[in-house]
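tokens incoming
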């Protein structure tokens, strides 16, 4: 929920930081300003401040890339939340199914995959190896959105920049309601296979998922497996 008096400068600064750390190459201040729809002078000032703090660093070509500060913050936050430490031992038990095993969190209409392990790969070796993915196109996104109200989902997907069309939002809400009724999300993937996901935490802090499942019937059978693992991780997080 938006606070009564949001700090717009802080919001813009974090948006600039995200633009730099999610870029696959060093990025200039003008490109950041164009992506965010902000005045170049303001972006230049914010990037300079972030560089001074060490969260990003300026290259010889006057562009920006992640700096040591963001790596320190990342390590501290992962340790502080305890999510990965609690989840990894239990995610490893899912590898025997020989499917994609994933865990992600929702942030700013996107799913950040903390773990995305292809068949046979240890989840511990698959941390942070996947780019941000639109929440409405992700099985993990659907699972988490099922624990939001329809109004919250609609507001999130209609927000600028890049709001979804009304018809697309209506389609997403239909899938969200199906997941809410079932207690887990299950959808076909673009490859013709299936994915299933269950939330972790109460309220949800993340969700775990299987993907690449050959049939819907097997996806349904795997839903209780995910639920049991999710409940175990949730119990460890609470204690």
């Amino acid at each position: 929920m938006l606070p009564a008096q949001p700090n717009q400068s802080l919001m813009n600064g974090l948006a600039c930081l995200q633009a730099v750390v999610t870029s696959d190459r060093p990025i200039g201040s003008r490109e950041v300003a164009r992506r965010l729809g902000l005045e170049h002078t303001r972006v230049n000032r914010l990037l300079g401040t972030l560089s001074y703090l060490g969260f990003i660093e300026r290259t010889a070509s006057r562009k920006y890339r992640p700096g040591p500060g963001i790596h320190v913050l990342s390590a501290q936050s992962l340790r502080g939340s305890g999510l990965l430490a609690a989840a990894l031992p239990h995610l490893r038990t899912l590898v025997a199914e020989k499917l994609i095993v994933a865990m992600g969190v929702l942030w700013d209409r996107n799913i950040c995959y903390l773990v995305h392990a292809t068949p046979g790969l240890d989840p511990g070796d698959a941390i942070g190896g996947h780019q941000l993915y639109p929440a409405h196109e992700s099985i993990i996104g659907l699972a988490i959105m099922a624990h939001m109200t329809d109004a919250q989902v609609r507001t999130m997907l209609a927000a600028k920049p890049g709001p979804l069309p009304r018809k697309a939002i209506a389609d997403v809400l239909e899938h969200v309601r199906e997941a809410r009724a079932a207690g887990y999300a299950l959808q076909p993937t673009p490859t013709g296979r299936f994915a299933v996901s269950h939330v972790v935490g109460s309220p949800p802090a993340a969700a775990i998922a299987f993907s690449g499942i050959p049939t819907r019937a097997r996806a349904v059978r795997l839903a209780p497996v995910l639920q049991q693992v999710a409940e175990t991780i949730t119990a460890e997080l609470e204690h």
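note: The mean pLDDT is 93.
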